[in-house]
Design brief:
- This protein has a three-stranded antiparallel β-sheet with strand order 1-2-3. It has a two-stranded antiparallel sheet with strand order 4-5.
- The chain has five helices and five strands; from the N terminus they run ββααβββααα.
- Helix 1 (26-48) packs antiparallel against helix 2.
- It is an alpha+beta fold and 121 residues long.
- A hairpin with a 2-residue loop joins strand 4 and strand 5.
Length: 121
């Protein structure tokens, strides 16, 4: 058996762009869970409230979770130039097209085997 610990996708939203994601393993899943544990606890607390401030803070925490997922799982981007420089995972998140970032988040959550309701967070 030959196993590849990464997987490459061709973007559906940006022609000519490919991105590489980390495949999940026991150790990498544990690492990701440890990275987002604080955020998930905070999100649960905020979602239990019903004020506008708590809703806004919950939305911020959801984005922080998404950023943690991308920092953990997005290994590279090919075929994309941002501000006259080849894009990296970091520059995609910081300055790249949001549609591509959304696509990558969906693919990453599918790689992790998350259910639909878990993908929303």
């Amino acid at each position: 058996m030959h196993y590849q610990s990464t997987v490459e996708y061709e973007s559906r939203t940006c022609a000519g762009v490919k991105y590489t994601l980390r495949r999940v393993s026991l150790a990498s899943r544990l690492e990701l869970l440890q990275r987002v544990q604080h955020y998930v606890n905070k999100l649960d607390f905020l979602n239990a409230g019903n004020t506008t401030k708590e809703s806004y803070e919950a939305a911020v925490v959801e984005k922080e979770i998404e950023r943690a997922y991308l920092d953990w799982g997005l290994l590279g981007v090919n075929g994309l130039v941002i501000d006259n420089a080849a894009a990296s995972a970091a520059t995609l998140v910081e300055k790249g097209p949001e549609a591509l970032t959304r696509e990558i988040l969906i693919a990453l959550k599918q790689e992790l085997g998350l259910k639909e309701d878990e993908r929303k967070n």
